[in-house]
Amino acid sequence: MTTKLEDTDAAGIAAALLEARRAAGSPAMGMVMTLVIVCHEEDTEESIRIAQEAAREHPSRLLAVVMGSSRGAAEISAEIRAGSGTYGEMALIRLNGEVAKHADSVVLPLLLPDSPVVVWWPSAAPTDPATDPIGRLGTRRITDAAEVRTGKTRAMLIQCESYAPGNTDLAWTRITGWRALLAAALDQIHGKVTAVDITSERISPSAELLGGWLAARLKAPVTRHRSDGPGITEVRLATRAGDVRILREDGRSAVLSVPGQPDRPVALRRRPIPELLSEELRRLDPDEIYEETVRWLSNHDLKRRPKRASSNGRPNKQNGRSGRTASKRRTAKKSRS
Amino acid sequence: MKTPARGYVNPLREPEDRRLPRVAGPCGMVIFGVTGDLSRKKLMPAIYDLANRGLLPPGFSVVGYARRDWVDQDFAKIVHDSVREHARTDFREEVWGQLAEGLRFVSGDFEDDQAFEALRQTIQDLDRVRGTGGNHAFYLSIPPKFFGAVVQQLKEHGLADEAMGSWRRVVIEKPFGHDLESAKELQAELGSVFPSGSVFRIDHYLGKETVQNILAMRFANTMFEPLWNSNFVDSVQITMAEDIGIGGRAGYYDGIGAARDVIQNHLLQLMALTAMEEPSSFDARSLHAEKLKVLEAVQLPRRLDLSSARGQYAAGWAGGVKVPGYHDEADIPKSSKTETYAAVRLNIDNRRWSGVPFYLRTGKRLGRRVTEVAVQFKKAPHQPFRREAIEELTHNALVIRVQPDEGVTLRFGSKVPGTQMEIRDVNMDFAYGGSFTEASPEAYERLILDVLLGEPPLFPRHEEVEASWRILDPLVDYWEHHGKPEAYPSGTWGPASADAMLARDGRTWRRP
């Protein structure tokens, strides 16, 4: 069921949500969170579809806030959808004119009482999500550097630098499978990792994050190599016993090589966004490991790196966390066969 | 996860990194009785679902063992079909590919020395080509009378020997014996081959999210535990009802009956989790200690005739379908005294539960399929409302719905809208299906993973099994020598004697 509201306000939307829930015959609220999607008109339907798919696992009140032009007289229109085909309930709210600068005033009264609020920017995100007016309402803020149209790596670095507890980026979520496999491999190979090589397509925020994580955790130099993708295609950890290597060329299945053991195929699929979002929504407390990783990245000279070179894995002691003072030391690209 | 000896800490693992799943180390599983229903409908799909969720180690291998003239490919086809049909998650070629490479089949019966030798070869082979590292779990999905023979064979062919740094485990399904004596025999047989930490007894109920949630609900919250004692609780009803009959299981079921089949394991385990004291931690040892303590405090009432009931389903209409009675089922002798419904009142002799009866009931061909634990609270000692106003108010209740429609219901009184003061029971529902849709894994997934990880908290230990038989044996023995089960029409909630049993205590059964 869809209800359209023109020239309305938060109270009008709240009343329509309640009405729609009653009409659907289920006045009980099984919803576990409010998910606010901040998007542009052209992404709206796709983002809602993704959020609703994720909501199958986490029934939520979805508030899709579409920002129009902030010029002209304030105007709020809304579409309420509930009942068949939707899990939880959802309001699509379009803001035009002056009110677009005060979107938080519309969202705040519509948050579910006393339950977590997650804000998701499906593509472009504010430079500092935690101080953004809507971002401030959230306990979790989810950005996606890989979905930004241009300057993906830069977008990720901006997110690294403005990290605040509760922020995460889907570029990080994308590498959970890689991280799990690598961690499992090091359950068995106990030697120190002396070097890390990561091969990925040229622009890959996920590869940057994976490199940051491995560098921060293993205290070993990380070298990036370029391939045609898709995404990350190979990770190699050099240990005294030999190389741990995961090779994934088709974006679906990988081969795991561990010293002293036969090569084994492993399913390592690039996951669609609804699955990533579901994973994000599973844990609503700050992700400390992500924090450690982004701190490492913004403390190192990744930002000033030329496109084809690599980062030096050694921690830089003198710089602050802004990254602007990051060291200019670089190593030449190391090449492993 | 194997904890290595030299204090090695995996730099990529961090307790706070909860995105990283628990993945077992390299290992494989050997399934005996792989052609059976359980294996096809539950085990195979669960293994696939685990692989699909990235929880199985790379190289994980499954060896099927059965008396069929199959080669590996025939086996792979069977597994493929059962995964396609029964798996919970989407079928993906790459996941299947990962799994399919590690499927092997060994043909033979349980006496066949050659076949066990072939099994040993196969496992060694897998260690080499799949890197399973000598770690293997033997899943005995076979009738319990063969358990002894199989573990002896495993021993004789060196399959039970753990090489340095690797493990061998054995997994068995209920029934764990049919009385105390046979349970002890079984334990002696298993114990002579596998140390008790390597024997995993699967009670699939304990793998269910709702059952684990009993512990979360009781011990993570403040608002239930203060009421969880004889000061506030009037009685507890634990029900496991099935709407189906015995189907083709006559050979297993006749002579066993509802009490041994269900009360001894599922219901007593549910009761233990509901009634036990807070464990000092959630590791296996503390949980077992608390469960065992409460099971040992359970007493059968002295007058078994007044505090138990049993029945046998008769022909009738169940859910709009005409169904035969127990005596009309194939291969059931007309003289069979096996009960298909059993109910009993148990007392727990400790300070917390003294005077609170626990009513346990189970049956086949009952009104609907449902498993639940209902905690009924006492009525308020005084009501300021007039008697007419609270006529429709009964006991407050907290119901843990184990299946289907997993969740928790809280029943309390509320004012009926209108000008008059009138109070009526209302329900407040928490549904797993509503709050955490679809993420909830099948019980077998959780249990298989725990076997591979070597984490036993969800598996009953033999002491618990023996304590349960100690409770039940006198009842079954009493039934053996007194009277016979009372017939009840299929599709109803059991025999009249069960209702009379509660009526004597001034209570009624919940309609679940």
Structure in words:
The complex is a heterodimer of chains A (337) and B (512). With 337 residues, chain A is of the alpha/beta class. Chain A has 2 domains: 2-170, Rossmann fold (3-Layer(aba) Sandwich), CATH 3.40.50; 175-270 and 300-337, no CATH class. Helices cover 28% and strands 24% of the residues of chain A. Chain A has 9 helices and 14 strands. In chain A, the strands form 2 sheets. Chain A has an 8-stranded mixed β-sheet with strand order 1-4-5-3-2-6-7-8, sandwiched between helices. In chain A, strands 10-9-11-12-13-14 form a 6-stranded mixed β-sheet, covered by helices on one side. Chain B folds into 2 domains: 28-173, Rossmann fold; 206-441 and 461-504, Dihydrodipicolinate Reductase, domain 2, CATH 3.30.360. Chain B is built from 14 helices and 18 strands. In chain B, strands 7, 8, 9, 12, 13, 14, 15, 16, 17 and 18 form a 10-stranded mixed β-sheet that branches. Chain B has a 6-stranded parallel β-sheet with strand order 3-2-1-4-5-6, with helices on both faces. In chain B, strands 10-11 form a two-stranded antiparallel sheet. The chains are: A alpha/beta (337), B alpha/beta (512). The A-B interface holds A 28, 30, 32, 56-59, 87, 173, 176-177, 179-184, 186-188, 190, 193, 214, 217-219, 252-253, 256, 258, 261-262, 264-269, 278-279, 282-283, 287-289 and B 1-2, 4, 6, 8, 10-14, 16-21, 23, 25-26, 51-52, 54, 57-59, 92, 94-95, 97-98, 101, 128-131, 133, 429-431, 434-439.
Observed structural traits:
heterodimer; A: 337 residues; alpha/beta; Rossmann fold; 2 domains; elongated; disordered C terminus; B: 512 residues; six-stranded parallel beta sheet; 18 strands; disordered N terminus
